[in-house]
Amino acid sequence: xxxxxxxxxxxFITNFGATGAAISVAIxxxxxxxxxxxxxxxxxxxPSVLKSLGFLACGFLMCVIVASIKxxxxxxxxxxxxxxxxxxxxxxxxxAYYYLCNNFFDK
Length: 107
Prior knowledge:
By secondary structure, this protein is an all-alpha fold. Helix content is 84%, strand content 0%. The chain has helices spanning 2-16, 18-39, 46-67, 75-105. It is flat, with a radius of gyration of 18 Å. The mean pLDDT is 81.
């Protein structure tokens, strides 16, 4: 991971500053995760990883919905509302996905 990060961090920080640092970390983490999944494919974890992608989709939907919320001009009020709404939205989506997986898809 560190070698991958060093290879790309200079380019991203030079061109994009702090945002570039965040991008390079995200790329590095994805690369490390992909390598670990590839190396551990013999362990038969792929079905459980694929099943967990539904929770990733729930998180993505939550982010899209929460990003569109703007209730007040106050940063603190918006932060609190977005945090509470995000938690409720994620629990609702993830709970529905979990229920569907356990009651319909595994049978």
